[in-house]
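Journal club prep — side note

Before the paper discussion, L.F. wants everyone to see what a predicted structure for a comparable chain looks like in token form. Sequence:
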Amino acid sequence: MHKLVIDSNVLISGILGSGFPHYILNLVFDERARLFVSPSILDEFRRVIYYKKFEKTPGFLSKAEKVFKAVRLLSIEAQPKIAFNLLPDPDDNKFIDLAIAVEADFLITGNSKHFPFTKIEN
């Protein structure tokens, strides 16, 4: 089973749409992939679902809260012990730190500008 770390934009896109991010969430919810989170990633997920800009989307908050609850139940929480500070946006380092710590197969993001790597370590 693949080990995944997902960026917040993947979570939000998965809630809003039916494309690749939605498919990634379904892999986790169907237990065909294992999602890893850290306390700081969960905090960010919780924070972004309440952004004011999503209030305009009918039914978003209700769906987002259900998805967040499922993510909390199905994910494995881990705390990275090393902060690598590899990314240009310091707030994004928590995702790469966790991916390295849990030896994730994939770190999935829609933000290639701030995640310039295609492969880290193995």
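L.F.'s comment for the group: The longest strand covers residues 2-6. Keep this in mind when we get to the figures.
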